[in-house]
Amino acid sequence: MTGFWAQVAVIARTELVRERRAGQVLWITIPFGAIAILLVPIAIGTDAPMLRRIGPGLFWMVVMLFGVLVAVRRSSLDTLPVRDQLALAGVDPAAAYVGRAAAAFVLLLAFEVVVGLAAVLVYDLGSGLLIAPATLLLAAAGLALLGTLAASIVSAGRDGSALVPLLVAPLSVPLLIGATQAHEAFELGRSSLGWVLMMVVTTVVLAIAGVLSAGPLQETG
Amino acid sequence: MPSAEQWNWVFLAYAFTYVVLVVFVASIAVRINAARQRLGADE
Amino acid sequence: MTTRTSRSPRWPWVLLAISAAVAVTAAMVVGPDAVQGQLSRILYVHVPSAWLAFTAFGVTMLMSAMYLWKRDLAWDRRAHASAEIGVVFTGLAIGLGMIWAKPTWGVWWTWDARLTLTAIMFFVYLGYLALRRTTDDLEARAKRAAILGVLAVVQVPLVHFSVVWWRTLHQPPTLIKPEGIDMDASMFVTLMVSLAAFTTAYVAMMYKRVELARLEDELLVAERSTDGPVAGAAVSTPSIDGGA
Fold it and tell me: How many structural domains is chain C composed of?
């Protein structure tokens, strides 16, 4: 058991170190998400009450559509030599998947916080968007697991990086509905527990699916 | 809505179904023939 | 299983023509619905299309699971065939739903839970087919597609559940739904005949589409073996005028 989680930690740290060097998420994906928040009023108008009303939904849409790009970032695990090395070293493919998803989770949280801050400031939203940690954490976890799984399904393919968002978007609907409805329930003072539970179930299902398919996926190389 | 106008919608629906299914089935037939020809050419 | 040299069987084409004739005849001879009038005739193609869309998707998932279990490419070809037929019927179901909704509800689209789910399913299907195009390695393609197929089967119920829950909170309860209308016996019989005809057509299409998938796989293998010397030749002296 310790062996598994130690492997997860090593993989996740390697991924994050690579991101710190390459800065793909920090300098490309996060700014891209932030500018999406700015582009919306340019396209649909700057009416303040309207933006306040649709702002939270727009934020979650940007997270789901552009957050996927975190999962398709260049990963050190993509190259065949590294994967062969991991296999030779006896690294559990499930641990590699969880580690990679864990790194994506950390990066997605950063994405959510920066883009969320932009949405709060630009759309004049209450801070409710950012003080509901459960939805932020669950959305990041679910999207990280789903995106990483999709990325490992298409890796080695020709049109891989373009395909991942198409695979992820329809399957991320429970996360999008859960996050937006939980937020709305929270704003209206209703219980958002049901929606949060739905996100928990989705996240757990995705984690199980990802761990179970990690082994068969590694065989193909 | 008068019956005649309703029939227009019904015809639209059936024409749409017909075109979609005929095009799809024909595409299967065409692709089968093309594949058979290419396989034959290989031999 | 037939081999490459065998003739392509004709019976699926005949079966297709018969089932189409039966479905159209049944839908045209039945009397109009008391509430919807002639528009109810659209439902005799819309409902079976939607039924086939979901059935085909279910078959794809089942065949994907069978592939992962048996590792026989025949299962993968069945999964692929069913997915492609499923895309066609999903598109058909959505299009026919729109053609029915416009004169009935006055809008082409409504955020009905099943409509939303069907639209999402359409894109899941498209992603599945797109994934199959990303590699020519038969085994790798089969495995990746099968894993996506199984992932979809666990995730789509969650999508369904979330969409239904989302809509029950927002949807005005006054919306007319097809199943809310009392259906008389002749309409029910017609719908059953239509469902049977569409399902028969699906079986016939599956037969031909699987045949096509087998030929395409053989073609890929054949091309790969003939590609060998060509790729080797390209390493040697390239000629400027193209050598043609």
Answer: 1
**B:C CB pairs within 8 Å:** 86
Query: Does residue C205 lie in a domain region?
Result: yes
Task: Choose among C133, C135, C162: nearest Cβ to A156.
Answer: C135
ipTM of the complex: 0.90
Of C99, C216, C219, the CB nearest to B9: C99
Share of chain A above pLDDT 70, in %: 90
**Domain around C145:** 42-172+183-215
Residue C160 belongs to some domain of the structure: yes
Whether residue C144 and residue A157 make contact (CB cut-off 8 A), yes or no, is yes
Cβ pair C205:B10 closer than 8 A: no
**Closest-CA residue of chain B to C84:** B24
Q: Kindly provide the b/e burial profile for residues A152-191, where b requires at least 16 CB atoms within 10 angstroms of the residue's own CB.
A: bbbbbbeebbebbbbbbbbbbbbbbbbbbbbbebbeeeee
- Domains identified in chain A, total number: 1
Domain that holds residue A139: 2-220
Provide the domain count of chain B: 1
**Weakest mean pLDDT among B19-23, C54-58, C159-163, C231-235:** C231-235
